Amino acid sequence: MPTRIVVLGGSFGGLTAALELKRLLGSKADVTVVSDDDRFVFMPSLPWLIMGWRKPEDITLPISDILKPKGINFIHEAAREVDPEAAKVITAGNKELSYDFLVISTGPQLSFAEIPGLGPEKGHTDCTFTLEHAVRTGQTWRKILENPGPLVLGSSQMVSCFGPSYELAFEMDAELRRLKMRHKVPIIYLTSEPYLGHMGVGGLGLSKRFIEDEFAERDIKPIVSQAIEEVTPGEIKLKDGTKVPFKLAMIAPPFKGVPAVAPLGNPRGFIPVDKNYRHIKYKNIFAIGVAIVIAPPEVTPVPTGVPKTGFMTLKMAKIAASMISADITGVTPPVVDELGVVCLMDMGNTAAFMRAYPLLPPRQSSYMKKAVWAKWLKLGFEKYFLWKMRHGLSVLP
Ligand SMILES: Cc1cc2nc3c(=O)[nH]c(=O)nc-3n(C[C@H](O)[C@H](O)[C@H](O)COP(=O)(O)OP(=O)(O)OC[C@H]3O[C@@H](n4cnc5c(N)ncnc54)[C@H](O)[C@@H]3O)c2cc1C
């Protein structure tokens, strides 16, 4: 009988883990992906979608088209619950899926409800973290171009993904300058980070100085180390009482683990794993990507989380797959090195290349460089990634 492996989540982590498991194990494994979304969305391009530079169909792929040719099962349903003792996943439609190994890559729950008035559904702010949110933010952005007013971009407390807000600040600035209307649109970058360029990892090489200089040159006003108390129509109230008016506010919400897997995790629902991404208690459960706990490198006055980027998530997926494969076949598992990070931050008319090893300080090496070649690299990577995913090939690193 083949080993039954269930993978929760159909994005960077889940698809990469499933494809890698099938590649390593072939007919020895029966791999099933469960996801509440039947599309793969290339999220790094969502800021470009907001700007009107991409359409949804440019950056989405049907999951079944990726998995079916590889002999991987796909269930388009949300997981409702995991019973680790019985080794079963229960789906929203009450299917019971027994597993020998489980891989969790369910990403974050976007916890808008923690801040009154936050979010696109029940509140007054926009967001860039899902395709639907990005489409909506794009509509608000186009209204700003017709009827200019102040922009507030950034992150609330408990966020662990800062890159897209920086990208949008640079992109909107560049686009407004191109349209010769930057003087009509004040831009504020509001963040829980203790300083610009912190990004939840205590900075990355020159990132603090780099972002400070770029923001000064571009006249983007920073408000750092702030938590949001509430949002009312057209106004963000900070915990220190400051009121920040806006016409468009694109604010990242607090992150939590998704309810289906949260009971396996810490108080915020993120899953504790060892260095091989194996659950610290349940040895047949692996968790990867945004779903896992990574302790922050330092306590910040306003709580921030450590980002788990796409690059890191792919690496985690490959490591988890090789550990499961080693458990099943009995071969010696590979020695796992510490995680590093590589990022390409779009800046509208240019981009920045960032690399750090390891992810958290103190570091052996870090590098940050603004260059037009980084923009070309980012454009090329989008095409390369989507081409590989379309053909069911797991991607770098
Ligand atoms: C706007 C934006 C820009 C980004 N830019 C970059 C970048 O330039 N470079 C980079 O390296 N990283 C970037 N990232 C980060 C990158 O997208 C994430 O690291 C990556 O998506 C994490 O993958 P994941 O599989 O952990 O989670 P996610 O991508 O969040 O996927 C979670 C999956 O689980 C599914 N799911 C959720 N709940 C359930 C449930 N109960 N049952 C079944 N399925 C469920 C979801 O539908 C989804 O398919 C960006 C992220 C965003 C939002």
Notes on the protein architecture:
The chain has 397 residues and is α/β, with parallel strands linked by helices. The chain has two domains: 3-110 and 256-335, FAD/NAD(P)-binding domain (3-Layer(bba) Sandwich); 112-255, FAD/NAD(P)-binding domain (3-Layer(bba) Sandwich). Helix content is 27%, strand content 24%. The chain has eight helices and 22 strands. The chain has helices at residues 12-25, 46-51, 63-67, 131-146, 163-178, 207-218, 310-329, 372-390, and strands at residues 3-8, 29-34, 39-41, 60-62, 73-75, 79-83, 88-91, 96-98, 101-104, 108-110, 151-155, 187-190, 220-223, 228-232, 235-238, 243-245, 248-252, 255-257, 285-287, 341-346, 351-357, 365-371. It has a five-stranded parallel beta sheet with strand order 5-2-1-9-19. Helix 6 links the parallel strand 12 (187-190) and strand 13. The longest helix is centred in the last third of the chain and has 20 residues, at 310-329. The chain is globular, with a radius of gyration of 21 Å. The model has no long low-confidence stretch (mean pLDDT 97). It binds flavin-adenine dinucleotide. Flavin-adenine dinucleotide is lined by residues 8-14, 34-37, 43-44, 46-47, 78-79, 105-107, 128-129, 161, 163-164, 258, 260, 289-291, 308-311, 313, 343. Residues 8-14, 34-37, 43-44, 46-47, 78-79, 105-107, 128-129, 161, 163-164, 258, 260, 289-291, 308-311, 313, 343 line the site of flavin-adenine dinucleotide (FAD).
